[in-house]
Amino acid sequence: MRSNITLLSLLLLVSQALPAQVSLRYEQNQSLPWDEAIEAYSTLAEQYDEARLRVAGTTDVGKPLHTFIISRDRLFEPGQVHRAGKRVVFINNGIHPGESCGIDASIELAMKLLSGEPGYREMLDHTVVVMVPVFNIGGALNRSPFNRANQNGPEEHGFRGNARNLDLNRDFVKMDSRNAASLVRLLTDWQPDLLLDTHSTNGADIPYTVTLISTHPLQLEKPQARFLEETLLPEVYGAMQETPYPAIPYSHGYWSTPEEGIFGGIQYPRYLCGYASFLNTFSFTVEIHMFKPYPDRVKATRITLEEMLKLANRHHEELAGIREKSEQLRSERKDFVLQWEMDTTRYDLWNYTGYRAKYRVSDLTGQRRLYYDRDDTWQEEVPYYNYFNPAIRVTAPEYYIVPQAWRHVIDRLEWSGITMEHLPADTVLEVEAYYLEEFETTERPYNGHYWHSGVQVRKEVQTVRLYEGDVMVPLDQPASALIVQMLEPQGYDSFFSWNFFDAVLSRKEYFSPYIFESKARQLLDADPEMREAFEQKKDEDEEFASSGYTQLQWIYFRSPYSEKTYRRYPVYRLNR
Ligand SMILES: [Zn+2]
Asked: How far is the centre of ligand 1, averaged over its atoms, from the C-alpha of 248 (Å)?
């Protein structure tokens, strides 16, 4: 009897040591739905002490956002991990849930890392892996076979819009979604060294399965930029070359065929990877080609993540050193680029294998249509356009002052981990203020906003009244590039461009012509120069001369009654 009990305990022990019962179905062209994905991670977390499944915030659909953390040293708090000098590799999945490869690939990667499969354990020597199983949960719950017209499987998959129909990969400044607010706080806590966001591409039909968008070296300070150009990118593409899935840079040239070249890009912080790049994190959007069979897409994603993880592990010391140096340089930087433009006169050459782009008359539309002939491959060097010049630059002040009235802006700065000070008392300060002279606005809403661009400003030194608790944002901090991009109105992804300050774009006070007329007369009498300009305009401008209202308005706008706050950008620049 006694020996039977021992045998039973032994069997129990053995069963506990077996790999957890997690089954993926990607080989059958199926992706795991959100609840099954969370169940899989939950099973792994129960099975292995080296993993934790945590609730890490909320999402618009009301379901919790999870993280799955893998640490061989069992360090699961960001503070512990940073103190131990471990590098953080952060993997985000399902920002576009129809592009589900990463959701399945990350579960498989977690299983391999935890079960101690040969070659995997050492990937965790110096790194901690933080995974977001599914980021856009609302979109993931909205499953259908019809969400991706251009994609080859899986049978059912999620939808791009989240529960509020937002594209979350355009939401990282405005943070309309709870999802983005939760993830930004996670990035603030974890401060990843490497961020990987998994997607599937649209675009040209190409033989490659893996395409990558990386942080652009121009977005980084020298030590990090050099490492990216000389080590990280060559090693990533080199390592992928040795796998069944060689990688190439993603082309932003949606309008072109690969023969015309590869068009690089710089991601602004509306994108997750752009946002992280502005915070000195090496970021990769892993774009897996949509026409490849789903099993291949999942494996290619996993292998890409593995190569990145190996790289972070191999260069762990260097990564720590260059980040520290770069953050120091960022804190000291004064000049920033707000917008870049591609320099199409400069390019490198990339050895490329492609399917020949051909045209024929469509028997459906009767029009010329593009197709790629997979039986006609070509190999040649194509131009890789990845040089950019600054289009708009700015010198940063020592501080931006954000009056507390603009709390939605302050919330987002806070979630982004930006250091802020508060005015200790009501005061009056001399500051630089911008007037928003010109801008364009999209005719139809874009991702929930009427986005502004082409912003022109005029700067004025003014004395403004400020109040206890108003926020001062110092620029001598590692996040300075993000602060400048978000708070300068000419930033491509500024809070201004995303409508946070639209209230200053309309007047609040006005005048009644019949009452103002006598005041207008007094104003002109008291100011001969204005009077002369007025008379001259009346002589030269027929339309002006024929409208009494326009004439009074002209005087009103030049009078002390005209509000100073109209079109004045309400974030000030302070140098002491
Ligand atoms: Zn995508």
From this structure: 17
Report CA(65)–ligand 1 centroid distance (Å): 19
Q: How many CB atoms lie within 10 A of CB 373?
A: 12
Q: Both tokens of residue 275?
A: 């946002």
Question: What's the N-to-C CA distance of the chain in angstroms?
Answer: 85
Residues with CB under 5 A from ligand 1 (ion): 96, 99, 199
pTM: 0.93
- The rounded Å distance from CA 86 to ligand 1 centre is 29
Q: Facing residues of 354 across strands?
A: 378
DSSP 504-534: GGS-S----HHHHHHHHHHHHHH-HHHHHHH
**Ligand 1: distance of its center to the CA of 96 in Å?**
5
Q: DSSP state, 420?
A: -
Identify the three-state secondary structure at position 265. Answer: coil
| pLDDT tens, residue by residue, 213-264 | 999 999 999 999 999 999 999 999 999 999 999 999 999 987 788 999 999 9
**In angstroms, what CA-CA distances link 208 with 328, 341, 389?**
39, 28, 29
Inter-CA distances, 504 with 26, 449, 501, 562, 571, Å: 52, 16, 6, 14, 11
Q: Which residues pair with 440 in a beta bridge?
A: 453
pLDDT tens column, 493-544: 999 999 999 999 999 998 999 999 999 999 999 999 999 999 999 999 999 9
Q: Residue 442 is encoded by which pair of tokens?
A: 């999209």
